[in-house]
Amino acid sequence: MNFNEAVGRAVRALRLGKGLTQKDFLGALSTQYLSDIERGKRAPSIAVLALICERLDVHEALPIILAKHFMQPSQTLTHTLSEIERQLYVAGFIELCPSS
Length: 100
What we know:
Structural class: mainly alpha
Helix content: 55-70%
Largest sheet: none
Shape: elongated
Number of helices: 5
Number of strands: 0
Mean pLDDT: 92
Order of helices and strands: HHHHH
Radius of gyration: 15 Å
């Protein structure tokens, strides 16, 4: 699975998880454009991804995190999140929790 397909799969999973249809995005995106994104046929720009996340009421990083997880299915989502936390710690953006 390539990155565009993984992002599309993440967007679709988040949309379905919220109980939304592609038509619920009308006014923001066409159903064809959203369908193309979800099938990995088109890569959304950062602005479009932010618009999708706003409509889904999720953080903009979530589709990217899920895409990374979908591209490495042997890794658990918890492992992926721990790795992100570790990298943020190494970069100096967060302090690790005592349990880490």
